[in-house]
Amino acid sequence: MTPRDTPPGPLLDVRGLTVRTDDGRTLVDDLSFTVGGGERLGLIGESGSGKSLTTLALLGLLPDGMTATGSVELAGTQIVGAPEKRLTAVRGRDAAVVFQEPLTALDPLMRMGRQIAEPLARRTGLKGRDLRTAVTDALVRVRLPEPDRIAHAFPHEISGGQRQRVALAMALACEPSLLIADEPTTALDVSVQAEMLDLLDTLVREREMAVLFVSHDLAVVAKVTDRVLVLKDGRAVEEGPVLDVVTAPKAGYTRALVAGARKLESALDLRSPR
Amino acid sequence: MTLPAAPLKETEPSKETTPVSRRRRSATLLAGCSLTALIALLALVSLVWLPFDTDDTSGGRLAGPGDGHLLGTDKLGRDLLTQLMTGARIAVQAGLGSVAIAALVGVTLGVLAAFAQGWLDDTLAAFLDILIAFPTLLLAMLVVAARSATLGSAILAIGLAQSAVVARLVRILVKRVLARDYITAARTSGTSWPRTVAAHILPNIWPTLVVNLALQFGLAVLAEAGLSYLGLGAPPPNASWGRMLQEAQATFTTAPAGALAPGILLVVLVVGVNLVADGLRDTLDPATRRRRT
């Protein structure tokens, strides 16, 4: 395994990232941002704004028929245009992803334990009983009850919240420097959502891991990140500390977002008993 | 879809289905297995013991049952049961051999074709479609004509023809799996392509694939019988059911057993493997499996 010396500069340095389809449509337009070690950045925007494509482009995983130009440097490695072999080395080690829908992001025919063991074995080289212990530990760390039962279960046999915890355990098993969370709570019930956010927050703080948190929900992003980047139609419209963006949004789109979030909140306030 | 955690505590994954559907499913599988096993038993016994030699013509011509000939003899005085047992061995060999070739060539081609992009993808898809449009029997006749009329040629020909069918299926299945999130998820955790194919793609296409291979087995048996009927299969004195049918054709009115017996066994084997395929589909298909939970 390659030594993990800290390169100078930010952990993730995106400059002029542009994603185009083969038929010429621009889906992400000249996007630039950085994430330093241990920093937490929120990527916010409505569906179709290019958030998910951006996360895929960060790991060189754009679907067929799309190409990225510009520069994405992850822990000193240039991702755009890199050969598959170099990308495989970076994925998981420098950045891991938690996806929106855990049911489809987990192999339906593989027991949870094996799915976590795969990346874990690759990073640590553990085998047999040691590997099984490590898998159980990973499940305990994401606060799953009965880790042994979960390890033997198939994805459809456990609840959505449990699945997402398994997906989180899988991502963390690689001990990445950057955790990319792509709408990790959107598919969950509201009550489970809050728990999941808490868990993510705690685990990431413990490890001093950098986070790129992608969401359409301003409230969720505000809870777990320090800084936000607002995307609209593939373009960055505003960037700044969470507090500034929420209290004094500059761009018109951001103002609409904040107003929308506040309206929901006040509706709750009005209905709650005094 | 979302299940409460509590009732699942004691549940093993294999016991997730209700007893009723399990019983119905296993009935199909059981019936199929029994029919197939019957023929397989005949074939296995023929390897170590036969009532008469395959070229023993000592029995009377078209004799009825009796005199050691349990089912009588054919027009050359050969024992019918002996021929049927040899035929069973040849049928099973043809099925297994063809399916093995089809699986090996077809899966390899199909996986490669699924990963191809752009013009190469189109070319491969068109190539497979053309191969499939070409009649299996005609292709087999060409191969047999180019080589010689042996069982090996027949198996090779049928196997190659079926490879195209399997390859096209595998290509579509792999493409579908490739579009799934869990493949992207595996890739984001740094899984290499070969590892992704082995750990995630093949297991996920396996249920559909194995059902199709079982069906191909039945088709291969029929194709071999067809080739033998035309005199392009295993050469005498190895009796293939197809050739037995052809030889008994002229004497069907006077001695119907010679034509009926191989015909019935052919039906038993083909229906048997089709039932096995059906049973396997219910047991293995993740779609039906999940619907039941």
UniProtKB/TrEMBL annotation, chain A:
Major place of residence: membrane
Nucleotide-binding is among the record's keywords: yes
Compartments where located: Cell membrane
Membrane topology field: Peripheral membrane protein
Short name of any one Pfam family annotated for the protein: ABC_tran
GO MF entries: ATP binding; ATP hydrolysis activity
Domain of life: Bacteria
Any single GO CC term annotated in Swiss-Prot or TrEMBL for this entry: plasma membrane
Coiled coil region boundaries: none
Keywords: ATP-binding, Cell membrane, Membrane, Nucleotide-binding, Transport
Chain ranges of the ABC transporter domain: 12-258
Family as reported in the entry's similarity comment: Belongs to the ABC transporter superfamily.
PANTHER family linked: DIPEPTIDE TRANSPORT ATP-BINDING PROTEIN DPPD (PTHR43297:SF2), OLIGOPEPTIDE TRANSPORT ATP-BINDING PROTEIN APPD (PTHR43297)
UniProt name for this protein: ABC transporter ATP-binding protein
Species assigned in the record: Streptomyces dioscori
TrEMBL record, chain B:
Gene Ontology CC entries for this record: plasma membrane
Protein family (similarity comment): Belongs to the binding-protein-dependent transport system permease family.
Protein name: ABC transporter permease
Topology in the lipid bilayer: Multi-pass membrane protein
Keywords: Cell membrane, Membrane, Transmembrane, Transmembrane helix, Transport
Subcellular location(s) per record: Cell membrane
CDD domains attached to this UniProt entry: TM_PBP2 (cd06261)
BP GO annotations: transmembrane transport
Region (Disordered): 1-23
Regions that span the bilayer: 29-52, 90-116, 123-145, 151-170, 209-232, 252-277
Domain called ABC transmembrane type-1: residue spans: 88-277
Species, as recorded: Streptomyces dioscori
InterPro entries: BP-dependent_transpt_permease, MetI-like, MetI-like_sf
